[in-house]
Automatic annotation (TrEMBL):
This is Esterase family protein. It comes from Nocardia stercoris. Residues 1-25 form the signal peptide. Keywords: Signal. The keyword Electron transport does not apply. Pfam families: Esterase.
């Protein structure tokens, strides 16, 4: 079913590029609703979810594994259909806040996503919160890029995630309007930037193994490396090195504007830890996977750990309350991120009023 949603997303992306919005809207009802595999779960009907004034709308809804709902959202800013995975709140008849979980630098491609690599489906099964996992955005920093990239294309993720998507999700899943956002790796930077771009949108921000500074030399080199990994050019995102936009979106520089949010930051040091064993999550007894996690994951986490400690000092200097969970070991890997989500959820749940 998920593959069908992705296929439809590609069709809508093509249609959006050649058809006017009115013509595309006329096609939506014909493919909008797919029956749920769970007879006890009613899928939201796209036809009754009012499109945004700019034309953004829910294009299709399909049931996924278990409680998962695959929502295809047409984004006017992106001129494309983006797939979002939703785990509805335990009580669908009662208003619920939303927890947005952002994937890392690969945008959740393959099986490297919150829904595939962690236990969120069971962990949140009895929680009154809509868990929302946007798919896509590899190498994008979930930013609004200043220019289209020859490889990564037209990126307007900040607009999509802060203005277009939340009202549609709340309308479709009985949302209360309260929200928190958390992300791993690349998205561990983006979550702060999204909060800065849309004051009041989120009550809580969680950064797991991220690197907040973007405008100093180290930060720029790190961002360049992440974007280049996917053959993109970061100059199309925030301009050439030294451009004022790099500082304008830097959470370290604008840390004061994060005051008042429920803030959670975690990272390791890159030294192999308790989950970096042949029996660890995702290793499956494969020594090659373990070596890659220890070497590549260790190197990246060492940088993330340094960034996290710099941010901790920055918050301390400004007197900004925040929770930091900084470990003496641990690599850049999903087992640790699942643990940190569990550890941070009580903080976000309280901030969301649950």
């Amino acid at each position: 079913m998920a593959a069908e949603v992705v296929r439809r997303g590609r069709v809508y992306r093509l249609l959006a590029s050649v058809l006017p919005a009115v013509a595309l809207a006329a096609l939506v009802p014909a493919v909008a609703t797919v029956a749920s595999s769970d007879p006890g779960a009613a899928l939201p009907d796209p036809a009754v979810v009012t499109p945004a004034p700019d034309g953004s709308r829910i294009a299709a809804v399909a049931s996924g594994p278990g409680r998962e709902v695959d929502v295809s959202v047409y984004s006017t800013a992106m001129a494309a259909v983006e797939v979002v995975k939703v785990l509805p709140a335990a009580d669908g008849a009662t208003a619920a806040p939303a927890l947005y979980l952002l994937n890392g630098a690969n945008g959740g491609l393959g099986d490297s996503s919150w829904t595939e690599k962690t236990d969120i489906a069971t962990y949140f099964a009895d929680q009154q919160v809509n868990v929302v996992v946007p798919m896509g955005g590899r190498g994008s920093y979930f930013a609004d890029w200043r220019a289209d990239d020859p490889v990564l294309g037209h990126q307007r993720w900040t607009t999509f995630l802060t203005r277009e998507l939340p009202p549609l999700i709340d309308a479709a899943f009985h949302g209360s309007g309260a929200a928190a956002v958390a992300g791993i790796s690349m998205a561990g930077t983006s979550v702060f930037q999204l909060a800065l771009a849309a004051p009041g949108r989120y009550r809580g921000v969680g950064s797991y193994s991220g690197c907040a500074p973007t405008s100093d030399l180290t930060g720029q080199l790190f961002v360049d490396a992440v974007v280049a990994r996917w053959a993109g050019n970061a100059a199309n995102m925030w301009g050439p090195p030294g451009d004022p936009q790099w500082a304008a979106v830097d959470p370290y520089v604008h840390a004061e504007d994060l005051r008042g949010l429920a803030l959670y930051v975690s990272a390791g040091t890159g030294v192999p830890g308790p989950l970096d064993t042949l029996a660890g999550p995702g290793i499956d007894g494969d020594p090659i996977k373990l070596v890659d996690q220890d070497v590549s994951g260790g190197f990246i986490e060492a940088i993330a750990g340094t960034c996290a400690r710099r941010l901790q000092q920055r918050f301390a200097d400004l007197g900004i309350p925040a929770t930091f969970d900084l470990h003496p070991d641990g690599t850049h890997s999903w087992g640790y991120w699942q643990q940190e989500l569990h550890n941070s959820w009580p903080l976000f749940r309280a901030a969301l009023g649950e």
